[in-house]
Amino acid sequence: MKERAEDHTDRHKIGKAGDPAQRERQLNTGSAQGVQLIYKRKTRDARVIEVLANAALKRYHYGREHYACRVEHTADVLDVACTVMDTLASSYERMRRGDLLDKLVHKLNALRSGPTVGSSTQQQEQPEQQEQPRRGGCE
């Protein structure tokens, strides 16, 4: 989220919300300048992602709950954290280490060519579905 009064700066805040549009409306009610949702991404565990992002962006912390770094950098941190978290959450215990790493590298490489903040093709990604365990037999 970004306060409209800070449109000329890179100050912004990160957070989680079950309904981002409703959260934006709530924040606009309490802000004289208003706020604007600038990026959203679905993930399996928003709480974990928020903790990771707060740790990764700590050097840019500004004031109580804002960050003063490029919004694109924050979106990149969120994308990488979500990709790692969702890939790990979708893995199954019998998956070999090399297969898990290959899957993670493939997903991370897909971020290179994906949409960025502000691009017209930016879409909300869905968390990856968990793989189903195989029944019987050996792997």
From TrEMBL:
It comes from the Eukaryota. Pfam families: MUG113. Residues 1-12 have a biased composition (Basic and acidic residues). This is Uncharacterized protein. Residues 1-31, 113-139 are annotated as: Disordered.
